[in-house]
Amino acid sequence: MGWHQTFILVGIPGMQEYNSWMAFALCLLYLLTLFGNLTILFVIKTEQSLHNPMYLFLSILSCSDLSLAMSTMPTMLGVYWFDAREISFTACLTQMFFIHTFGVVESGILVAMAFDRFVAIRDPLRYTSLLQNSVIGKMGLAVLARGFCVCFPAPFLIKRLPFCQSNVLSHSYCLHQDAMKLACADTRVNVLYGLIIVICTFGLDAVVILFSYILILKTVLNIASRTERLKALNTCVSHVCAILIFYVPLIGVTVVHRFARHLSPIIPMMMANIYIVVPPFLNPIVYSVKTQKIRQRIRKMFQQKKIRN
């Protein structure tokens, strides 16, 4: 057999009759993701009282979520709705790069938001002066540059491999670890690269976030007033939810890929879809529900529309 020029994406293994239902659910989630994140961005842009570091970091998170959703949803909907399962080698590599880049970017933003919460609780009087717009902009660019640099080699490491046997991927979008398994050549370099990237980005980020929250808890416990302690901790609830929403599916996908041979093929497919779809969908909901200023501004916005009508 010659080298493959395309990959085949998959829907629900062995249950193609349910693809249209999955397509409907994904389309609905996609529309709600776009609406939720664009609403967050609009509210932060138009409400002057939200022009502080915490909400600026949230707007960067929403941009990352939108980018991740737009990188994956077209091919996912194509597979489930139109059975358009074939993707060119180049398109697959491009999608792979963007998915992994925005995954690393999201992790980096969560670290920056942990630092933001630490500064806000540790030194509230100097909070806005320490985290000025220029500093936040530089942190955002650093997170984006890190994501770009660490994920840039991934497509080239896949491109050098021959694919002369199966070209059927495990998901409805392209991942480095998924494509790598199909190569009929030595993939030790790819495995080592993937391991180093996971440890140096997601692993390191998780450690930094954990350390930040240890310092936050230490600071909060030194606050004399119980009311003030609860108030300080309450400002971290949304961020903690965002961390869990991102890292739990990520760990799930990693574990499932490691033990995929012993599992039903439906489980890796579901875990991969959850990892891609759920965080961008849930983050705006969590911040809208848990953040009073955003909630009030959204309510006010919809009330104004009703009055106009």
UniProtKB/TrEMBL annotation:
Location(s) in or outside the cell: Cell membrane; Membrane
SUPFAM superfamilies hit by this protein: Family A G protein-coupled receptor-like
Listed Gene3D superfamilies: Rhodopsin 7-helix transmembrane proteins
Protein source organism: Gekko japonicus (Schlegel's Japanese gecko)
Keyword tags: Cell membrane, G-protein coupled receptor, Membrane, Olfaction, Receptor, Sensory transduction, Transducer, Transmembrane, Transmembrane helix
CDD domains, per the entry: 7tmA_OR51-like
Topology versus the membrane: Multi-pass membrane protein
G-protein coupled receptors family 1 profile domain residues: 36-287
Coiled coil region boundaries: none
SMART domains xref list: 7TM_GPCR_Srsx (SM01381)
Residue spans crossing the bilayer: 20-44, 56-81, 87-115, 135-158, 191-216, 237-260, 266-289
Stated family: Belongs to the G-protein coupled receptor 1 family.
Protein name: Olfactory receptor
